[in-house]
Amino acid sequence: MKFKAQQIADILEGEIVGNPDIEVSKLSKIEEGTEGSLTFLANPKYTSFIYSTKASVTIVNKSFQPENEIKTTLIKVDDAYESFSKLLEYYNQVKNNKVGLESPIFISDTAKYGDNIYIGAFSYIGENVSIGDNVKICPNSYIGDNVAIDDNTIVFSGAKIYSDCIIGKHCVINSGAIIGADGFGFAPNENGEYSKVPQIGNVIIEDYVDIGAATTIDRATLGSTIIRKGVKLDNQIQIAHNVEIGKNTVIAAQTGVAGSTKIGENCQIGGQVGIVGHITIGNNVKIQAQSGIGRNVKDNEVLQGSPALPYGDYNKSYVHFKNLPKIVKNINDLEKNKWE
């Protein structure tokens, strides 16, 4: 799809400097701009590229004044980075604004759905499913029995939502995500074998939650695994049964959270963090990448390492760890001199 510079300026409430009728049909980095592309300049260290870029249109701050001749048409705004982000969001809305039911799909006779929905080819919609207005379910998706998906949620291709799960408004579930698979529940018997414990709960995902590609959220044994409002989960994360994650917490890729752990609000958890089961992590906690959490964590703690230490203590200890060979040598020399 093509947009004129003036159309973009109107969306961003910006000022045109150059040709208002020039058209763009793609986005680019400023250093990789080509004819017909739109880019932006927000970081001063990239300023030199505005004189060489071949991008047709560039979004800049109102304070920008070119020192040399430029060929790109400018759109001047209060905040170039924020405006470009706004434009990306608008572009996504336009790109994903498919409507209707493709073929072939299966929709149960007992399923109910709202207005302006999209269901892509080869998708399955089970018994008693409820789908709200403006929901987009992309091709090859599976929606199990008794699932509820609220308004304005997007389910990308290949995602699987098992039976009885509840998905809120304005959520994004990326490709390959699996919501509501059985929790890892097995009990040893007298023969040393393991018997499966039935997992009969569900997953509840509240509003404005983003779930990354290939992330898995297991259903509860009893009750619900709960992802609160505004949570953002990266790709390839494992959330076990009966976990609860507080609102506006963000978790980076390849983190695993074991069963029945409660994570508070506004936490920031780095990639490849391992969190044991049946503990409580407070609000506003920050956990550095590759940390191992094996205990309860109080509000506002900042942790690093495995097992995790307070962030300042970890850094002090690491200084000594790096010098450990030297320290050992010094001790050995002292011991040797002692007996000479």
UniProtKB/TrEMBL annotation:
Its source organism is Jejuia spongiicola
What keywords does the record list, in alphabetical order? Acyltransferase, Lipid A biosynthesis, Lipid biosynthesis, Lipid metabolism, Repeat, Transferase
State which Enzyme Commission number(s) the record gives. Answer: 2.3.1.191
GO molecular function annotation: UDP-3-O-[(3R)-3-hydroxyacyl]-glucosamine N-acyltransferase activity
* Lineage, opening ranks: Bacteria, Pseudomonadati, Bacteroidota, Flavobacteriia, Flavobacteriales
Which residues does the UniProt record annotate as the domain UDP-3-O-[3-hydroxymyristoyl] glucosamine N-acyltransferase non-repeat region? 21-89
Question: What's its top-level EC category?
Answer: transferase
Pfam hit, one: Hexapep
Q: Does the keyword Protein biosynthesis apply?
A: no
Quick one: which pathway? Bacterial outer membrane biogenesis; LPS lipid A biosynthesis
Q: What does this protein do?
A: Catalyzes the N-acylation of UDP-3-O-acylglucosamine using 3-hydroxyacyl-ACP as the acyl donor. Is involved in the biosynthesis of lipid A, a phosphorylated glycolipid that anchors the lipopolysaccharide to the outer membrane of the cell.
Cross-referenced PANTHER family = UDP-3-O-ACYLGLUCOSAMINE N-ACYLTRANSFERASE, UDP-3-O-ACYLGLUCOSAMINE N-ACYLTRANSFERASE 1, MITOCHONDRIAL-RELATED
Q: Give the protein family.
A: Belongs to the transferase hexapeptide repeat family. LpxD subfamily.
Q: Kindly indicate whether the keyword Lipid biosynthesis belongs to this entry.
A: yes
Subunit architecture: Homotrimer.
Q: Which reaction does it catalyse?
A: a UDP-3-O-[(3R)-3-hydroxyacyl]-alpha-D-glucosamine + a (3R)-hydroxyacyl-[ACP] = a UDP-2-N,3-O-bis[(3R)-3-hydroxyacyl]-alpha-D-glucosamine + holo-[ACP] + H(+)
Active site annotation, chain numbering: 241 (proton acceptor)
Q: What protein does this entry describe?
A: UDP-3-O-acylglucosamine N-acyltransferase
